[in-house]
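INTERNAL AUDIT FORM
Audit reference: QA-55
Scope: verify that the stored structure record matches its stored sequence.
Auditor: D.O.
Record contents follow.
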Amino acid sequence: MIDWLRRRPDEVPQVEIDGRLLPLALRRNAGAKRMTMRLAPDGSEIRVTLPRWGRSAEALEFARSKADWLAAQLAKVPQAADLAHGSVVPYRGQTLALSHDPAAPRKVRLGESAIHAGGPADSLNRRLQRWLEGEALQLLADDLAYYCLRDSRRAPALSLSRAQRRWGSCAADGTIRINWRLVMAPDAVRRSVVAHEVAHLTHFDHSPAFHAHLEALFEGDLPAANRWLKREGRSLYAHFG
């Protein structure tokens, strides 16, 4: 996986968008023919992919020339809000109501059509996130075991990620990390990301062989899962900081 180039904070170029200074993260890609740009899901930085021969100064000018577009994208970034009784929480593609009773036990539990929690309101967000992360780890471990069995290999180490720019990653030593927020996405979307990273255990690239292997490994509709992430992925950042 190609990672974003990082510099010391005082060296990072910035672009002012609607009164906010956003850092510019650059990624050089040998296969890129032109510069492309997107905003981080949480609006924290501008990401520019450029060819190997591309210059940082050109990337900065490119971002500045697209300030209006970036401002429009920034306005769409959901802002995490404090949860309260009656709030909605996405879980495995469903929209569940939050039932909060301060007098009830603090432990979060899943009901038929709601998520129930007690205890003080000021720790509700943290406890709900921990509960969702626990659910994510269990589901993802099952997914990983399933796809590794299909791939006739032993399941590697798994950990949760809180990354702002990746749904999953596969390290050179085989360790797989998956974004915990996928517990809020439909099951097929979450599973597609796990299958993607398992396929990287065989092909550590995005070659035609990798895509053919992934299509054989994943039982669902890959284009539909990818479309969902592209269309709805940013919304998964609206509920927790």
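Auditor finding: record pair retrieved intact. The two ends are 26 Å apart (CA to CA).
Action required: none
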